[in-house]
Amino acid sequence: MVAASVLAAWSPVRLLANESRDLAAIRRGGGAAVIPAAAITDLLASLRGNVLLPDAAGYDTARRVWNGMIDRRPALIVQPSGTADIVKAVQFAQSHDLLLSIRGGGHGISGNAVCEGGLMLDMAPLSGVRVDRDRRKAYVQPGALLGALDHESQLFGLATTAGTVSHTGAAGLTLGGGFGRLARRFGLACDNLAAADVVLADGRIVRASNQEHPDLLWGLRGGGGNFGAVANFEYELHPVGPEVIGGNRVYPVDQAREVLQFYHEFCERTPDDLCVDFAIVCPPGAQPLIVIEVTYVGNARRAERVLRPLREFGTPRVDRIATVNYAELQRSTDAGTAAGKEYYLKSGFLRGIAPGLIEGLIAGFEPSRSRALVITFQQLGGAIADVRADGTAFAYRDATHALLMMAGWTNPAETPLNMEWVRGYWHTVAPFTDGFYVNSYTPDEADRVKANYRGNYARLAGLKRQYDPDNLFRMNVNIAPA
Predict the structure, then answer these.
(1) Both 138 and 231 in a single domain?
(2) Is this model's pTM higher than 0.70 or not?
(3) By residue range, what is the domain housing residue 360?
(4) What is the mean pLDDT of the chain?
(5) 465 part of a folded domain
(6) Alpha-carbon distance 199 to 41, whole Å?
(7) What CA–CA distance (Å, rounded) separates 234 from 138?
(8) Quick check: helix, strand or coil at residue 450?
């Protein structure tokens, strides 16, 4: 009895705010709602995790996401301890007709992880990764970051396509498609999604796999968070590392035209086990740099022959291509995309790199004393293109590259001007692109969502009608139920 009383005294207070008052909230379709204090008390009683109200000490931390531009205030935040809590939170949002958002890693540029005045389901406490070495599978919770997935998988010399920034959330990356250094060899992150446990709007838990609800698995592979709250992800793993050949060569900006032309020609003959990305990197107040980054996961004895054209091209300021630790390579760009800055991004897909695109990028480039800018060509093709356009919800299988233009700054007063400048610069190159990448969605693209899913939209709208007919899961690149 004494031990029990001591444990009770040390139990955390799970409702981290004053629960003795009603809460003003916003309904899923807009309009005001009131959540009775008794309902919040009942919600807490049904959970093992936390409920954060706006006066809670941890509330502001929980609602903070990677893009510092996002400053929304949910009426309440639920931090689940497991799948049962996810079910309870979804049922609560459904029964009270609340706007619902889901925060995985919180890395989405649009900030859709955080709703204004609704219920935010904060998956951060569910960040576990378990690897089955024999089956080459990883079992990943919805709050896990890519760095954790790489860390656990690399213990066994395994990996799956997992982005290029380790503090990105695995959930959002996968549901939107998922580029990465291994994608040309092993496919997108969504192609490596073998199964998922999904909490539907009515509170049911279903397993999406090739054997159970295969239509739902199809939609999860690139259709975003439209169909439910994913409680667990199961990934295929592949032998990779712990060492690979990777790194970059850095050139002065006055060689941009020549380097980009070489990059275009080099990409046309690269094997699938080589990924080559190109970037123009311009820190605030500094001279821009041109970067070619490579990751090679093929036979080491072939590496020098494969990389020889790059080794022999130009006179770089820096040549950092060497045998490197794969997990360290995955973390190598983290510092340049640190959380908390104000970020704005535009994206599109390319089928080849046209001369007009090169000229437009060079002519419109404008350094800034306070705004960082990164323009990236992410090489696609290879195993990505081996999947039919209708084989998953991700339809851009014919693209050779994804073009991303991202700006970041620290002074909120500069936000309108910087956003306008990025839009204008993007306008000069947009005619060479097609669609946009779901994971770089901003509200500017809202009227392009239907076209962006190309021939897959009608099927996705049908799935939405089947699994979320009332559009509870709408804080995303939203697909309206058919």
Answers:
(1) yes
(2) yes
(3) 243-447
(4) 94
(5) no
(6) 23
(7) 6
(8) helix
